Give the backbone structure.
Amino acid sequence: GESVGLHLPTLSVQEGDNSIINCAYSNSASDYFIWYKQESGKGPQFIIDIRSNMDKRQGQRVTVLLNKTVKHLSLQIAATQPGDSAVYFCAENIGGGSYIPTFGRGTSLIVHP
Amino acid sequence: KAGVTQTPRYLIKTRGQQVTLSCSPISGHRSVSWYQQTPGQGLQFLFEYFSETQRNKGNFPGRFSGRQFSNSRSEMNVSTLELGDSALYLCASRNVGYESTDTQYFGPGTRLTVL
């Protein structure tokens, strides 16, 4: 979910578990959504994206679900590994040719071996 | 292909000074965007350049400016630095196609500290 203030919400899981990270987006006009992973000391890394004409998209070990009715996005990571430990951000973009994504505050995922 | 590179990686300045940060996009990418990341405000869009023209601008004061060169490399400048400008400045490039959904690739960032 989204954070308030300086502290990120944290999700702690055991290695091998499935992880679900949630994101509430703000603009019903957004038509493109992206999930990024950011490890300490690095820039955000693209994970998966989804357009508003879809409600589910799968990648390698990751699935993004989009619920436009309640403006909710989730990222599911299967068989979570210690290397998945990072901060995960969702971003939304309003189409029309512009690319000005608005980022969520992020969720910290901690995977325990 | 080499990824997005940013220089310098770390920078310390004092209030009132100005700073210039540099970004080299992935080869072939003509769009370069800049973001500011802070613990308090998260990731915020500064501006996007495409073919040497500023295409979009975020809600930042005029002290923040940028430019793009003919080889798509970009620089951003912050004048009259304030303590609140301390942040990680990220550059991202994308291969602009027909739709606005081309994947954006981020560099490692420049960590700016203002004393």
Notes: Chain A touches chain B through 28 residues (CB under 8 Å). Residues 47 and 101 of chain A are 15 Å apart (CA to CA).
